[in-house]
């Protein structure tokens, strides 16, 4: 009888919560027709594809909206990082009839950093750990790691999310919880609630804090993307067109040669081809080469005109019991260099039979000064894969603290857990600074700043130039912390005093302090971002520290 009751509760919950979140889109025929048209930008496409139910009456969503809105530079940088990938992801979701909110999931998973690597070895935009990546046919070997391939990893992520959606009875919130926590853990939590006669939806389950905050973070990003002006955030103008295309390849080719023929930087190449781990792409591996669409024709034209070798390296497949010394001698390279180039240990004497190696083309080629500029000293050994089958171990944001009534300050979560620390994988040719979140426990520390503003990769902007990420958020945080100290010492009058609260016939003038945003000022003075912009003729620009702004109505909220 208890078993029947348990499954009756699950069925009832699915009926109540699942019907609003089905894999087959509930968008109208008109909405689908709209998506077939060219949109003003990619953000408009994503907004029109929203089809996931809200988390109603969940204070954690409001918390994370405030958290992100207080850090507009970080949100803008993550959005800028999405430029090469987000159109492709949005279109793949449309093909499958899946909600476009999922195109925002890499904001939560990896801050849209293609090289992101967590301490549990979760990698790429979608943060697949090795075992889950293998299960979803993402190759991970000495030559490549397809968890960092934007096409292959997106296919795997959408396959996995589709499976989780069906596994959890057609509930996207539970599917997302499963992506973070594991489908088995979520199913056991549902069974436990059902056996006690409790509801089995996302908000009713007992789960780790990380998972409990996971869906609210996505819903918060959704709100901001839906109406960025409300929160004082200007999103980058990303065209509603493909950013990259795949180009044909039939011969071995050095990465440096691809870069030269396409007229792009190696950093731009790595943004699209981070899965490649070696300085040469062998034709026998049938590698995927992705290039910015604007450079693809130039690459094809230059390739057709190129005379001579495309690669100074070649693959060599050793036979059984073949010594490394004999291979090195045959190809004019020292044994030590051959071992370093191919990841062999110092004491290894024989090559691994039938495992392709990199060797110089011809004899007498210097492995540290090749014609294409490849430096073998930059090549690093592969990292052994391990882990349990979870897509992510959540590396990006602090968890929300307990919510207190009448607390208008945006408080940061505890960053001390290892799950909240992120590092960036080393690629052979592009040195990348660490993206490790700080372990300090100060409430004033901007952990998004640590994650995002210390970013590694120069991102292309709309004109094709590169925008360099800076530590602006970190600097703003330090100033904010200093302001808080001065405020507590009585050097700055609190906003709730009579001086600020009293209305006057003309608009009050507010001097912008470090860390303040249009959204925080609108909440403080009981007005809207649009009204502040209009009254001060701000247009779309951001406000500056020290700037004097007139406040509409001046109804101060303490």
Describe the structure in your own words.
- This protein is mainly α and 558 residues long.
- It is 39% helix and 7% strand.
- It has 22 helices and twelve strands.
- The protein has helices at 2-18, 29-35, 42-48, 59-69, 72-81, 86-96, 105-110, 130-135, 150-167, 172-181, 183-195, 209-226, 255-262, 266-273, 293-305, 324-330, 335-342, 447-453, 472-488, 498-501, 518-524, 529-535; strands at 116-118, 244-247, 253-254, 280-281, 289-292, 313-316, 357-360, 422-424, 459-460, 466-467, 508-511, 548-551.
- The strands form six sheets. The chain has a two-stranded antiparallel ribbon. It has a two-stranded antiparallel ribbon with strand order 2-5. A two-stranded antiparallel ribbon has the order 3-4.
- A hairpin with a 5-residue loop joins β9 and β10 (466-467).
- α18 (447-453) runs antiparallel to α19.
- Residues 1-22, 363-389, 392-447, 453-458 and 462-505 have low confidence and may be disordered.
């Amino acid at each position: 009888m208890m078993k029947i009751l348990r499954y009756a509760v699950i069925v009832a919950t699915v009926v109540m919560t699942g019907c609003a979140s089905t894999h087959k889109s509930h968008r109208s025929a008109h909405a689908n027709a709209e998506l077939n048209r060219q949109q003003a930008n990619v953000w408009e496409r994503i907004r029109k594809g929203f089809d996931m139910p809200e988390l109603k009456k969940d204070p954690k969503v409001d918390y994370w909206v405030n958290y992100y809105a207080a850090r507009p530079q970080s949100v803008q940088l993550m959005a800028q990082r999405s430029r090469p990938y987000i159109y492709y992801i949005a279109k793949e979701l449309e093909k499958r009839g899946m909600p476009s909110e999922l195109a925002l999931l890499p904001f939560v998973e990896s801050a849209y950093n293609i090289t992101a690597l967590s301490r549990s070895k979760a990698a790429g935009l979608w943060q697949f750990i090795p075992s889950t990546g293998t299960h979803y046919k993402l190759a991970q070997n000495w030559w490549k790691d397809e968890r960092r391939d934007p096409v292959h990893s997106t296919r795997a992520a959408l396959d996995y999310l589709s499976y989780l959606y069906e596994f959890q009875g057609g509930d996207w919130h539970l599917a997302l919880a499963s992506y973070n926590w594991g489908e088995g853990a979520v199913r056991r939590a549902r069974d436990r609630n059902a056996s006690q006669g409790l509801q089995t939806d996302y908000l009713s389950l007992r789960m780790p804090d990380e998972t409990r905050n996971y869906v609210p973070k996505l819903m918060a990003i959704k709100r901001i993307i839906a109406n960025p002006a409300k929160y004082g955030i200007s999103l980058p103008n990303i065209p509603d067109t493909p950013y990259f295309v795949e180009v044909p390849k039939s011969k071995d080719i050095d990465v440096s040669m691809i870069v030269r023929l396409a007229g792009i930087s190696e950093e731009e190449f790595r943004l699209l081809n981070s899965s490649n781990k070696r300085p040469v792409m062998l034709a026998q591996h049938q590698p995927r080469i992705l290039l910015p669409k604007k450079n693809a024709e130039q690459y094809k034209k230059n390739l057709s005109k190129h005379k001579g070798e495309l690669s100074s390296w070649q693959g060599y497949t050793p036979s059984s019991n073949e010594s490394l010394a004999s291979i090195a001698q045959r190809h004019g390279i020292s044994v030590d260099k051959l071992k370093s180039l191919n990841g062999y240990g110092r004491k290894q004497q024989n090559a691994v039979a039938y495992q392709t190696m990199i060797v110089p083309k011809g004899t007498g080629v210097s492995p540290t000064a090749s014609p294409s500029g490849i430096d073998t000293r930059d090549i690093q050994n592969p990292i052994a894969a391990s882990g349990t089958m979870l897509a992510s171990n959540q590396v990006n944001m602090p968890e929300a603290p307990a919510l207190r009534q009448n607390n208008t300050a945006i408080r940061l979560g505890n960053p001390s857990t290892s799950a909240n620390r992120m590092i960036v994988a080393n690629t052979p040719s592009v040195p990348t600074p660490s993206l490790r979140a700080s372990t300090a426990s100060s409430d004033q520390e901007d952990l998004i700043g640590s994650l995002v503003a210390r970013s590694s990769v120069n991102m292309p902007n709309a004109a094709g130039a590169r925008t360099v990420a800076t530590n602006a958020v970190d600097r703003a945080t330090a100033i904010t912390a200093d302001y808080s100290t001065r405020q507590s010492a009585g050097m700055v009058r609190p906003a709730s005093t009579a001086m600020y609260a009293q209305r006057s016939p003309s608009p009050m003038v507010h001097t912008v302090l470090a860390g303040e945003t249009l959204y925080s000022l609108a909440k403080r003075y009981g007005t809207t971002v649009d009204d502040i912009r209009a009254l001060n003729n701000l247009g779309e620009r951001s406000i500056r520290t020290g700037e004097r702004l007139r406040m509409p109505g001046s109804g101060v909220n303490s």
